[in-house]
Amino acid sequence: MTSPIDIEGGGTSVVVDGEAGPSAKAETVQLEGRSPGRLMWMRFKRDRTGVISACVVIFFFAIGLLAPLISKLYGKDPYTVYADERPELFDSAGVPVQPNGGISGEFWFGLEPGNGYDVFTKLLFGIRTSLMISLAVTVTVVLTGILLGVAAGYLGGRTDFAIGRVIDFLLAFPAQLFFIASMPVVVSLFVSPRDETPTYVRVLALIIVQWFLGWMSLARILRGTSLALREREFIEAARVSGASSWRIIRKEILPNVVTPLLVQATYLLPSFVTAEAGLSFLGVGIVEPTPDWGQMFSKASTELVMQNDITYMFFPGISMIIFIVAFNLLGDSVRDAFDPKTAR
Amino acid sequence: MLRFLVRRTLGAVVILFLLSMVTFVLFFGVPRDPALLMCGKTCNADAIANIHHVLGLDKSIPEQYLIFLHNLVMGSDSFAQGPCPAPCFGYSYHSNEPVWDTLIDRLPTTVSLTIGSAVFFLVIGIGAGLVAAWRRGTVVDKVATAGAMVISGMQIYFLGPLALALLVYQTHWFDKPAYNDFTANPLTWFSGLLIPWVILSTIFAAQYTRMARSSMIEQLQEDHVRTARAKGMSRRYVFFRYAWRGSLIPIVTIFGIDLGSLLGGAIITEWTFGLPGLGQLSVQSVFFSDLPLLLGVMLFAAAMILLFNIIVDAAYAFIDPRVRLS
Asked: Where's the ABC transmembrane type-1 domain (chain A) (predicted)?
């Protein structure tokens, strides 16, 4: 990598870190070059909030990944309708008989009013669905953002103008309204309106719709970064030495846009989680019986739950707050670790 | 200034035109037949063809779009339901009312919701941010920052039903939120919208607190602020006259964006509280496959976003005399 940060890396880290301790002395003695990635990792490790929120985020992803295993050990699945299987647990309205939403040693998070799904496994699998969709959206958005943003910034001229106008145009879309309006449209591209919609089609539609209006902010930022990089000496040197545009983009530009890319991606993912949950809340995203974080909120807003069993609301609600806050804090920490000069 | 406004308005009209084209093709060009939904169980090919003809769906997509544009600008008398003066978005498939009238009908709810909550979140959000910046590093600052952090992780679809359950269903302290006409009785208008205002503005206020705080702190480190302090101006004067003005730009930007998108319909809030505004209308029209209505709401919402973009850019010139409109 020919990044100029490389050369500065070893020398300035002590000053930049601003934390002069016994270790700082040792570092000045051994002037060994460290990669920006290593420097970032060192700064990040020292940030306690960052480490804790990273653990929380990893915990959520682990839950999503291991949901089938956990529910197997726990002995239940999110599809069993306990209102039919164990009618003695529910009253005539479908509300769990036991207090606090039927929380017991057997059902750790209680039972869902109405159908009587097990809330614990439903939440696990719901998180799994939500994170899977949001991760897929993030990946597609990042790829599109890199492709269009770097192309616009590095190539400039007409390409830049065209991509810029497309971005302006898409930014005028009322995003949420467009999501809910185009969900049925995208779904009907795959299945006829008379047939039952399979879940994977809904998932695919959610990914496509969110991707379509999700990539612009990232592309804009990457455009700005590569526009600035284009004028730097090391790029010029590469160009003079006869490197092709493709090679320069791949070897010189891309390694240098990793920083804004990573920071933006950590901010984007939670926003996709909440957007997807919003769609499922409105009833145009994932629908029952497929477990989904947002769909649990739509269940929680029914009169049955609000009237009889508010315990149920807190499981999706609190878990999502923890997830979003941890992810946002992680985003701040990642940004600080990469660029210690920006003040909070 | 006038040149700027004319240029931006023309740009916005071009974008709206393109947007109407894209959404029109998207809604009408896809094999999702509203006739199937309308003709019910006793459906045969003749009935569907008849509905297609009545709705004008038997023509080609470009032709339908040209008719739509023509009606929008000139109005039309060719609708079976009656005359439709410009701006004519056609008639709703579901209610058979003119789309424009329905939009105008729903607008007061959305405007009331937006204005009410904007007042709340500006005062509370920016106020908390300023206090936090003024008392930077103290307990007050930490509480405000942490509170804003936690609230920014909350969503309306959690907070809304929670408030409803606690305040309405469990304790019966409040009536169910509803929209009552302001001109008929301002008091019921206020009490009916109080919960939605508070919930919506809580979510928004957190963002404003964080932004007001960070941009104030940034401004307070500027050279001109330090100079003002050094030559003996009071902290209070410098804080409100120098730093505050400089920190307005990011706040006004976000406020414009928020206002524009809220006026196009606060979808989740209106859906949660059952308020008959544009947001609720859009969700309903999705469920009924009510394409003309959906197109109408979409264009209206986009127009609001573009309008407030222009207003924000024009406002920069007033806030910061260095900004030149071009």
From this structure: 127-331
Residue A80 region by backbone torsions, left for phi larger than 0, else alpha for psi between -120 and 50, else beta = beta
Q: Nearest CB to B153: which of A282, A300, A325?
A: A325
Chain A to chain B, count of Cβ pairs less than 8 Å apart? 145
pTM for this predicted structure? 0.84
Q: What is the pLDDT of residues B292-322, one digit of tens each?
A: 888 899 999 999 989 998 888 888 877 777 7
**Residue in A with minimal Cα distance to B17:** A169
Of A265, A295, A296, A321, nearest to A56 (Cα)?
A321
- Cβ of B158 within 8 Å of Cβ of A317? The answer is yes
Top-tier CATH class for B102-319: mainly alpha
Q: Do A177 and B271 touch (CB under 8 A)?
A: no
What pLDDT, in 10s, does the model give residues A93-115? 777 777 777 777 777 887 888 78
Neighbours of A190 (CB within 10 A): 14
Can you say whether the dihedral through the CA atoms of B118, B122, B125, B128 is positive or negative?
negative
Query: Residue A278: inside a domain, yes or no?
Result: yes
Residue in A closest to B265 by C-alpha: A177
A108 in a structural domain: yes
Contact criterion met (CB < 8 Å) for B264 and A177: yes
Domain, as residue range, for A137: 49-338
Q: Report the residue of B10, B13, B158 to disrupt the A interface, i.e. the one with the largest count of A CBs within 10 Å.
A: B158
In whole angstroms, what is the distance from residue A324 CA to residue B152 CA?
8
CB-closest option in A174, A189, A325 to B298: A174
Contact between A310 and B166 using a beta-carbon 8 Å cutoff: yes
Contact A193 B294 (CB under 8 A): no
Annotate B303-315 with three-state secondary structure. HHHHHHHHHHHHH
Task: Please give the Cα distance from A70 to A109 (Å, whole number).
Answer: 14
Question: What residues of chain B lie within 8 A of the CB of A188, using their CB?
Answer: 30-32
Q: Do residues B125 and B207 make contact, with C-beta atoms less than 8 angstroms apart?
A: yes
Taking the domains of chain B in order of start, what are their residue ranges? 2-99, 102-319
A249 part of a folded domain? yes
CATH code of A277's domain: 1.10.3720.10
> Of A316, A326, A344, A343, whose CA–CA distance to A269 is shortest?
A326
- The answer to whether the bond into B34 is cis (omega within 30° of 0) is no
